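Students often ask why inverse folding is considered easier than folding. One informal answer: many sequences map to the same fold, so there is more than one right answer. In these notes we will look at a single instance of the problem. The structure comes first.
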């Protein structure tokens, strides 16, 4: 069980697909799975560069939460019978390169990447929460609970990045903007492909 009471129990096939808005749910679960997969690869890249530094344990702690998120979306993909994005091999490489590349700028660069990515993801989760609330909050209760908890975790990672001098990274605003444009493109593509 994660903080906030979100259960990581297996969903199995207990999810009733009757009356589910398939296009909306497919898009949400596919893109969230891709996002959590990408986040895992970013933290893997950061750990490859900074794992033995003073910030290594902090990055590992955030990565461990992302691993839990990915595990849950792996389960939800099976439960809702959603196929993953065909772009996972690309996100595998791109995520690792982004993580390692930002970490090569040092601790502040890694934290700037964390702030940019986590802000994008939490904003995206908020948009999904609004969509599901408009659809049917009772029907999507479990999915809403998961997304809200993960959004809160991402906001926590964002705040940790700010607390650890993200804004002191070289060309912070340019770096943040570039990463967030990449996140928007990744979200757009992963929802559809």
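Output (designed amino acids):
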């Amino acid at each position: 069980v994660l903080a906030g009471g979100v259960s990581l129990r297996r969903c199995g096939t207990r999810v009733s697909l009757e009356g589910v808005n398939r296009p909306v749910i497919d898009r949400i679960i596919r893109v969230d799975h891709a996002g959590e997969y990408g986040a895992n690869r970013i933290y893997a890249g950061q750990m490859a560069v900074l794992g033995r530094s003073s910030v290594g344990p902090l990055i590992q702690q955030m990565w461990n939460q992302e691993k839990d998120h990915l595990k849950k979306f792996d389960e939800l993909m099976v439960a809702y019978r959603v196929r993953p994005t065909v772009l996972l091999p690309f996100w595998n490489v791109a995520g690792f390169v982004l993580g390692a590349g930002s970490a090569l700028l040092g601790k502040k660069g890694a934290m700037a990447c964390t702030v940019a990515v986590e802000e994008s993801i939490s904003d995206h989760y908020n948009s999904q929460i609004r969509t599901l609330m408009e659809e049917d909050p009772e029907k999507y209760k479990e999915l809403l609970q998961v997304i809200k908890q993960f959004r809160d975790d991402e906001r926590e990672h964002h705040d940790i990045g700010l607390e650890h001098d993200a804004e002191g990274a070289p060309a912070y605003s340019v770096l943040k903007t570039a990463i967030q444009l990449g996140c928007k493109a990744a979200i757009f593509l992963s929802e559809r492909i």
